[in-house]
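Notes to self after the Tuesday call (sharing in case useful).
The group wants a holo model before anyone commits to mutagenesis around the pocket. I volunteered. Ligand is magnesium ion. Logging inputs and output together so the record is complete.
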Amino acid sequence: MNTVIEKLLSLDTPQERKIIAQGADIIRRGGLVVFPTETVYGLGADATNPWAAKHIYEAKGRPSDNPLIIHIAHPHEAALYAVTSPTYDMLTAAFMPGPLTVIMPVRPIIPSEVTAGLPTVAVRCPEHPVARALIAAAGVPIAAPSANLSGRPSPTCAAHVIEDMQGRVDMILDGGASEIGLESTIVKIEEDGGLLLLRPGGITPADLASVGCRVRIASAVTDALKAGETVISPGMKYRHYAPQAPLFLLDGTIEARIDFLAKRFKALQAEGKTLTVLTYNEEAVLLQRALPEISLLLMGNCDNEHAQAHALFDLLRQTDSLNTHELYAPLPRCEGMGLALYNRMIRAAAHQIIRL
Ligand code: TXA
Ligand code: MG
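Result:
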């Protein structure tokens, strides 16, 4: 398939508006368009067209029991596709458009190919102007998972998308780097009007509580699934973001981590192998002084979880081009934006946490 790649850094010029019109036309005809959002890039198709939805699964290599998020241009449009409620209105007023996805009972207009046969649908109104312009011009909701091949980190810039999707989609809209860099927060509205957090993201549990929502955190957000356990969000059960070299998360002080890494480095060196460490910027000098031969990747400042979120998926992709045998990173804390980092990193590490 020939993939048209277009740069769209604003929507100001007639040429840029023409590109949006072309993308919208592809969507209406059942094709696939990758577009930028403030979280990660999405692989979009007409959410009301079952065949188009099937093409998304094929292009990603995604299991068809993992449902898609539908993207709308205005929060009020959700009522066309889902059964909304006062809780939804509350979320809309506080957080939409933005990095929040809400799961509600589905209306029949959305085909089962999109919901993977569930009685609910996930709805999101992104804030990114290119995403909103594309959805509005298409005139249909756009079903879009993250635009990565299944099992790879979500793409946070056009280069990542091109790596995974060139030749598999009709068009890629390059809107620059994604501002947040981790996928949206997903909440399910429960029958009593409370929220069940299924995936942490840019909107934190504290943000949700601050507008009067009752929030429960699904155990799969922080814990490994037990054998035979059923999940509410099918995406939770798949291995995610797996780098080629195994990743281990170190839980301990910088001194304890340096000590551990020094021993591990020596043991691997004896076998002719190497390791790579993802580190906070402030700790890089300490690590480099203690272990000059170790290769380091910088994650951002220790207390700047937004910077770390922004960098994480790019770093995980970079590790795949390094000739390294083991990867180590500090275990993030489970609060605020840290919870989203923790959730992605324990999956990338297949829950391998080393307590020091
Ligand atoms: O930030 C984002 O959310 C990005 C951008 C493109 O919007 N999209 C994204 O989509 O991350 P995806 O498909 O990679 O992740 C969506 C997750 C999956 O884990 C899926 O299982 C879950 O949402 N999901 C979708 N519909 C659901 C439903 N009805 N019930 C429970 N979980 C659902
Ligand atoms: Mg994804």
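Two things stood out.
The chain has twelve helices and 16 strands.
Residues 37, 39-40, 42, 66-69, 101, 103, 115, 118, 120-122, 124, 144-146, 183-184, 186, 198, 232-235 surround threonylcarbamoyladenylate (ligand 1) (CB under 6 Å).
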